[in-house]
Write a structure and sequence with these properties.
Blueprint: H1 19-30, E1 34-35, H2 44-53, H3 61-71, H4 73-80, E2 85-86, H5 90-99, E3 127-131, H6 141-154, E4 164-170, H7 175-181, H8 188-203, E5 213-220, E6 225-232, E7 236-240, E8 243-247, E9 252-259, H9 263-272, E10 275-282, E11 288-295
Parallel strand pairs: 1-9, 2-3, 3-4
Antiparallel strand pairs: 4-11, 5-6, 6-9, 7-8, 10-11
The structure holds N,N-dimethyl-L-histidine.
N,N-dimethyl-L-histidine (AVI) binds near residues 138, 189, 256 and 258.
């Protein structure tokens, strides 16, 4: 596996601590309200728990998106046309290679928030970006727009080609359904959220008492997003990397946003990021959407 720059993506100090993780956690615990970026959920255990989340009954997005992708293959093929290079996720590269032996797979490990240099093998092909799972919803709109613009640059929009983007975007729905999807009865999502504390304690020499925190998923209607929090169930004091923090009972660490979209807000976000929606599909229950968009030509904007 290579990075696009050939440089290791994780920078560690002399004790092997991931510097960016420490910086984000210390800054996030030091601010009011406290917040830690959701990307730090995904250590080995967090990734494993996320896989389990995608299988719990209440978490509908994966099933709904899979239904759309499975049933609309003919539509995609017609709209996308032949001969486009596909931008694969690293984890699925080996599985895809095994399942489709005739399909060349070129995994690239890179920070997708920046422009990525794609392998020479796909340089001359028109590109199709595939960004499933409604991961775009984990970013606040400003960051989501930055990412959409950087995808445009990565896929070669400024070099005469006309890239396409196939993107999963979860839909606004009944708040009870949403809150259950992020607080399943089995407690898998709670374990996923709480695992962040375990990771901080292990990797950053933390002394956070896990029994002083509870998982909470709340729908923020003004901002159209599910928020995950770790709520202090009592007054608590702890250290992380030698720094001391205190929290009062009821205070929270905000750990994730998962924005949900309406057809119009989904379109507007894509347009703001330089993509013109061409087609939109939903599952039979209208829970989730998949959109196909084309890089907007600069000349289309007045
Ligand atoms: C990865 N991402 C799209 C998931 C979501 O639904 O926002 C992460 C997740 N968090 C809790 N459950 C699932």
């Amino acid at each position: 596996m290579t990075t696009d720059t050939g440089i290791a993506l994780v920078e560690r100090d002399e004790k092997g601590v991931d510097k960016a993780f420490r910086k984000d956690v210390l800054a996030g615990l030091g601010q009011a309200p406290k917040a830690i970026p959701a990307r730090w959920f995904y250590d080995e255990e967090g990734s494993r728990l996320f896989e389990r989340i995608t299988q719990v009954g209440e978490y509908y997005p994966t099933r709904a998106e899979t239904e759309i992708l499975g049933s609309r293959g003919g539509d995609f093929a017609e709209l996308i046309g032949p001969g486009r290079g596909v931008d694969f996720l690293r984890e699925s590269a080996a599985a895809l290679g095994a399942k489709f032996p005739g399909l060349p797979v070129h995994p690239v490990e890179a920070d997708f928030m920046r422009r990525v240099s794609l392998p020479d093998a796909v340089a001359a092909l028109p590109k199709l970006g595939f960004f499933p799972g409604s991961t775009i919803g984990n970013m606040v709109p400003r960051t989501a727009v930055d990412l959409l613009r950087s995808m445009r640059a990565t896929l070669g929009a400024d070099e005469g080609a006309s890239p396409l983007l196939l993107i999963g975007m979860d839909l606004v729905k009944d708040s009870g359904v949403l809150e259950s999807a992020y607080d399943d009865a089995e407690g898998v999502t709670a374990a996923f959220n709480m695992n962040l504390l375990t990771r901080i304690n292990r990797e950053l020499g933390g002394t956070i008492p896990a029994d002083a925190f509870a998982h909470e998923a709340r729908w923020n209607d003004d901002l159209a997003r599910i928020e995950m929090h770790l709520v202090a169930t009592r007054d608590v004091a702890f250290e992380v990397s030698g720094e001391r923090f205190t929290m009062q009972r009821g205070e929270t660490i905000h750990t994730e946003n998962s924005h949900k979209f309406t057809p119009r807000t989904a379109s507007l976000l894509l347009l703001a990021g330089g993509w013109t929606p061409l087609e939109r599909w939903t599952d039979a229950k209208d829970q989730f959407s998949v959109l196909l968009a084309r890089a907007t030509d600069q000349r289309e904007a007045p």
